[in-house]
Amino acid sequence: MEEKKEKKWEILKSEYVLNSPYYKVKKEEVLLPDGSIIKDYFMRERKGWVLVYCLTKEGKVILNRQYKHGAQEVVMELPGGMVEESESPEEGAKRELEEETGYVMEHVEYMGEFVTDPSNDRGKAWLCVGTGGKKIKEPKDDPTEPIEIELVSPEEALRRAAEGEIKTLPHVAAIWMGCKKLGLI
């Protein structure tokens, strides 16, 4: 069987139509491999972000419940957030976990880099798995992110993901990957 070669699109023009510190949108004119041109292909650009699947010393998964304005509802998710340019994904995972939950990890392992919307988003997402989580302080007080922390068994986290109680898809995948990495499934 003949192997197909990857055919990339060529960017002919590119301009920002929204350019804020946290979120950017570009309008691009692109040339397709067949010679046709799309004049208004829109791409999102944002900082990379990390998700943290962390087990406490007692073997519980740390989850956050918080309002997300994009979904316009309260959702259950793993801790996580934007990674600063000066940080590695592991450093960002440690910082985000501590800020959002007040927990620190004894051990953190980088699981990889992922894309969440390869058609329209150039942002990167990373997953880190942590163990030995221990609460050392109260979470950072942020009025834009009021967070309720919940500790559940890995089986309960998987059940919630499978039954749609945890409905943010990257978080569903990260829960499964975290359980798999730690030999829990």
Automatic annotation (TrEMBL):
Keyword Secreted tagged:
no
GO MF terms on file?
Answer: pyrophosphatase activity
Q: Which cofactor does it need?
A: Mg(2+)
One biological-process term from Gene Ontology?
ribose phosphate metabolic process
- Gene3D superfamilies given in the database record: Nucleoside Triphosphate Pyrophosphohydrolase (3.90.79.10)
Which keywords, in A-to-Z order, does the entry hold? Answer: Hydrolase
Where would one find the signal peptide in this protein? none
Where does the Nudix hydrolase domain lie?
43-174
Family, per the entry?
Answer: Belongs to the Nudix hydrolase family.
Q: What is this protein called?
A: Nudix hydrolase domain-containing protein
Q: Which organism is it from?
A: Candidatus Jorgensenbacteria bacterium RIFCSPLOWO2_01_FULL_45_25b
